[in-house]
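Illustration: Iron-sulfur cluster assembly protein SufD.
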Amino acid sequence: MSTDTTPAVAGAIETVASHLHPNPSWDLSDHPEPTGREEIWRFTPMKRISPLLRAKLTSDNLDWQTSIPEGVTLSSISKEEARELAVEAPLDRVSALAAENAAYGVRLDIPAELEVAEPIQLTGTGVGGVVSEHTVITVGAFAKATIILHYLGEGTFAEKTDIRVGDGAQVSIVTLQDWADKAVHGGQRSVLVGRDASVKMVTASLGGDVIRLQEDVRYAGPGGELNQYGVYFVDAGQHIQHRIFVDHNAPRTKSNVDYRGALQGQGAHSVWIGDVLIRKVAEEIETYEANKNLVLTEGAKADSVPNLEIETGEIAGAGHSSTTGRFDDNQLFYLMSRGIPEAEARRLVVHGFFVDIVRRIGVEAVEERLMQAVEKELAVVTETLEAEK
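Result:
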């Protein structure tokens, strides 16, 4: 293994000697334009994501609307400062371009020991063009907060986001990819979990033409805990890809990953790549990752690849699972045998499939927004199935 080029403030982080984990680097020349034959790109529709691979900055940042509680600060910082605060350097060309082309860095800072009662909300709307941004979120030791990032509108968006969570902090991070139909969004999100800190991450992808996100988590010390949840609903012709990497690089750390997706329509394609690495030093850790996909109509495809790399036998528990299938006939039969029409029975099955994840967000307004979006998608499914009869 080699040493990461991330600045010293991010700590000495070993890279992973694997074709699944490219070496991080701020140098764009270390991330040549991919052909699609590379392992990390082989599931990606290269022509459709090409604006993110060749783009130069052609417009300013997204149009942001924010709700910042007292004590929390949102400020512009230099690109150099953003790199110094980053958890890790870019892992692919999209995130490297995001950092390189960003007009400036953006920092959201939650001071140590601050307990924020109301959610911190940032809503970014694309207004067309190509946008590159590098955002750094810093959460001080023993702080408590909920952060919501909501993406809307049109355009092409390259993202590099770094989140540093201090020791003993408790933070929930919710991201909603709720783009218009033709939007393209790609990037890298890297999280560093402090000693004895607790992090809950919820990622929901419901819109856009192509979404491809790399989501990495590692630990700054023992005792850190991660609960990472995701939901996605993929329509005809849409491509949504989530690539998860949890690096257990400290002892007595925990992680629980659960992503669920539903697909409908010709050419709907979801990709979920989950990878958990348990290093030699990571004794007494606990981890589990799961991905479940529900294929609602013909012509949809779900690729799901869980990986578990274990370098020590001294662990409390580790496992993974992946399922892809159609409606559960037993569930449908049970509901229909009690007089519920087939269309309504299908709606209830999908509703239950998602609600178990959505209810864990802990922000009522966001939970309602997601379930409304799911209900809207289900109406399309019902219309399609009724038309096929």
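Reading the tokens back as a structure: The first strand starts at residue 63 and ends at 67.
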